[in-house]
Every structure is written in structure tokens, then in C-alpha cells.
Amino acid sequence: MKIGTNANRLRVASLLLPGLLIFGAFTVYPILKLLVMSFFEWDFGSMFNQTFIGLANYQEVIQDEYFQIAFQNTIIYTLVTVPGQMVIGLLVAALINSIKRFRVGFRVIYYLPVITSWVIASLIFRYVFNTEGLLNYLLNNILSLTSSNVRWLDSRWGGMIVAMVLGIWKGIGWNMVVFLAALQSVPNELYESAEIDGANVLQRFFRITLPSIRGTILFALVMLTIGGFNVFTSIKMITGGAPAHQTETLLTWMYYKAFSTGKFGYSAALSFIMALTLGLLAVLQFRLMQSDKAGDAL
């Protein structure tokens, strides 16, 4: 019996070992290496002679004016795009769930932006909102609503608004699919009973639908928050951080500091500050949802 148990353990270990080795080599080790780099003035030209500077990189990040701008832009991007995607995605899911014909067609139409490449979508938006782009051509030359071309991407908030519109447009389809699956799991008997009791559409939505999909809402909220903090491609392709680094986000600024200035220790410290912020936000979101659930139970 003992031999059989040992053989089973050996068999399980042999199955787990390749996966654990890959996970350790490509996930755990890079994270630990990045943590070590954040305490050094890291120079890739000399791999074995690095200067230990303690928390100086973290201090430099916190005091950096452009990091503060990037952090603000990331927060604002997340605060705008996350509710925008969730609200519109939920409304679209509710509408699709209420119809009986053409469901598949509408789902495909709304999901197409999700499978569109971020690079391609960003280049299209850049072309549309460029000073000499399609939108200015329509407003100025076709409709004659403006006397000159509007510089949509030449200001901080103009560039950020364009990126946020793209972020919302790209995310509606994903939220639609997630919420549609949740809505289809809500028992119809609840709606029928509420309708018999005289509840209108809004009352059924807020008293039955939303409480029933609370877990899905939390899942989408956490995932979209992480996605909002990871915004990179759209900013890089549409504005490139211009003008004067005013539209940088955390990832674009981290990329710039690492590969344009060679400050890898700075970028490593920034990445851990970002990870800590995301962790705190995730914990806060879970606790808020749990407190609301406890309040409803009472």
C-alpha cells in the first residue's frame, strides 16, 4: 500500500513538475528579478556590477512630476472607461436578452470591436481625429461647421478623451457577453412573480436583475480595473505621450523610462507601485461588494 502511495505521489509530481518549472522560470523568477532591480541603479551594460541604492528609485518615482501626471491619467482613464463599458455593456446585454430574433447577429456585431486589433483600432482613431484627419474633413470641408481644423490630439485632455472613447468602444462587446451569460442564468420565475406583484421594468431590473448578477458585476469590475491600469497600446499609437508627456499613462511612462532613458531600476520600482495600487483597489472592491451583500441580507 505504501509503495502504491509513493508511486502515485511520484506520478503526480512528474506531471506537475514541468508546469511548475515553466511557471517558476517565466513568472516567479522575472518578478523576483524585477524586485531586485528596483533597489539598484541597474545598468544592462554591466550585469554584475550594479549599484545598490535602496529605496531611492521608489522615492524618485513618487517625486517625479511626470509620474504624477501618468498616474492621474491612468486613474481618470479607469474611472471613465470602466463604468462606461459596464453600463453600456449591461444595457446592450439586457436588450439582447429581451429579444427573441437576431440575437446571434447582434452579439456578433457588438463583439467585433473586441476581436479587432488594438493597433489597427488605434491607428484608425488616430486617422479620424488627426488634425488633417477624417473628422476635421467632414466638419470643415463637408458640413462647414468649423472655420479651421480642430487639433483634437494636440492637448492633454483631447488626446485622453479620444483614448477613452476607444477604450469604451472596444470593451462594450466583452461586457455584453459576460453580462448576457449572467442574465440568462437568472430564473424567469422571479420576473414572473414580480410582474404579478405589479413591479415595472425598472423595479424588476434594480430589485431582481442587479442583485442576481452581483458576482458577475464584481468580476467585471475587477478585470476592467486591471485592464484600465494596463492601458498602453492606444496611448502609444494615438498620442505617443504627446504633448510633452501630458498624455502618458503608467505603462507608457514605464516603457519610456526603461527603453528611452535606460532607467530600468526606476521602471521596476514603478511597476511594483502599480501592482500595489491594483492590489489595494481589488481588495477595496471586494470588501465594498461584500458589505453591500451583507447589508442586503440584513
Descriptive notes:
The protein has a single domain (57-297), classed as MetI-like (MetI-like fold, Orthogonal Bundle), CATH 1.10.3720. The chain is built from 13 helices and two strands; from the N terminus they run H-E-E-H-H-H-H-H-H-H-H-H-H-H-H. Strands 1-2 form a two-stranded antiparallel ribbon. The chain has helices at 2-37, 56-63, 65-98, 103-115, 118-129, 134-142, 156-183, 188-196, 201-212, 214-229, 233-238, 250-259, 264-297; strands spanning 40-41, 51-52. The protein is 76% helix and 1% strand. It is mainly alpha-helical and 298 residues long. The relative contact order is 0.12. The protein starts with a helix and ends with a helix.
Secondary structure: elements and pairs:
Elements: H1 2-37, E1 40-41, E2 51-52, H2 56-63, H3 65-98, H4 103-115, H5 118-129, H6 134-142, H7 156-183, H8 188-196, H9 201-212, H10 214-229, H11 233-238, H12 250-259, H13 264-297
Antiparallel strand pairs: 1-2
